[in-house]
Amino acid sequence: MVSKDQAIGGIIFLVCMIIAIFYVITLFYPQWMIDLGWAADTSAIQFWLVAVPVFIAFVAIMGIGAWIGWTMATTPPPKPIEEITSEMEEEKPEERPSEEEVPETEEEKKPERRRKT
Questions:
Q1: Is the distance from CB of 62 to CB of 85 less than 8 angstroms?
Q2: What is the pTM of this model?
Q3: Which of 1, 38, 104, 112 has its CA 20 to 30 A from that of 92?
């Protein structure tokens, strides 16, 4: 049985394929719409088939640009790096690590290997 996500994906695929086929046929052979009585002029059909997707793409790109600009305009600037480093130094004064904090050498980190008998 097909999951819900796969069914939705299949429906989206079919709808997109039908629209793409309809678009290509109408763009290159607009006469069929006139034959059915849906339109009167082939050049107007071809114009709108190109104009509508270009308009949608243009508005989408402008919307993304406006969103980026709004985000940049309303986001407070970050602290200067000097201020961050001075805060870190105040929180942790430089101290020499005690012997317990000194990391072990590579040889000390490796566990002993047991020999097979």
A1: no
A2: 0.55
A3: 104
